Amino acid sequence: MTTAQLQQILLDQGYTARIDDDGDILFEARNRPAYVTVLEQDPAFVIFFLDVQIRADEGSKAVLLQGCNFIQCVLKGVKCLLLRQDEEGYLIRMAIECFADAALLSRCATRSINSLCEAATMLVDAVERAAPLPAHTD
């Protein structure tokens, strides 16, 4: 599968999808940026992903990791990866990786995207319930 074919699948399903600077397909899902990419060296391998920035202190790390484990158990195909931890909080990548051709992806892309969005919502809710954060002011 090519990036162009993958982009067309998203367009056919109503997403506004464009190629970003590093070759991923960028689109919006439930008001958050999401991505999908196909590996050129293995064109049957597709990765849907989105990143979640969570403002939390060091004491919330256990809750965050428990939330990631829970999501992986409940949503089965979703991987949660801690990409970065710094003064801004935590950067989590939610991903679904699969081997698929265009016919299969045209049937399951929306389900994968919805699962990622649900995972992000579940994680943010879990951290906020465990340690409510003060309102962010500029």
Short structural description:
With 138 residues, this protein is of the alpha+beta class. The protein has 3 helices and 6 strands. 38% of the residues lie in helices and 34% in strands.
Radius of gyration from the CA trace? 16 Å
- Give, in order, the helices and strands: HEEEEHEEH
Average per-residue pLDDT, rounded, comes to 86
- In angstroms, what separates the terminal alpha carbons? 44 Å
Give the helix proportion (percent range).
Answer: 25-40%
Q: List how many beta strands DSSP finds.
A: 6
Question: Going across the major beta sheet, what is the strand order?
Answer: 1-2-3-4-6-5
* Overall geometry: elongated
- What does the main sheet amount to? 6 strands, antiparallel
**Strand coverage percent:** 25-35%
Poorly predicted regions are 132-136
Class inferred from helices and paired strands: alpha+beta
Oligomeric organization of the protein chains: single chain
Number of separate helices? 3
Describe, in plain words, how this protein is organized in 3D:
With 138 residues, this protein is α+β, with helices and mostly antiparallel strands. The protein is built from three helices and six strands. It has a six-stranded antiparallel β-sheet. Helix 2 runs antiparallel to helix 3 (102-130). The chain is elongated and about 45 Å long. It starts with a helix and ends in an 8-residue tail after the last helix. Mean pLDDT is 86; it is low at 132-136.
Which terms summarize this structure?
3 helices, 138 residues, elongated, disordered C terminus, alpha+beta
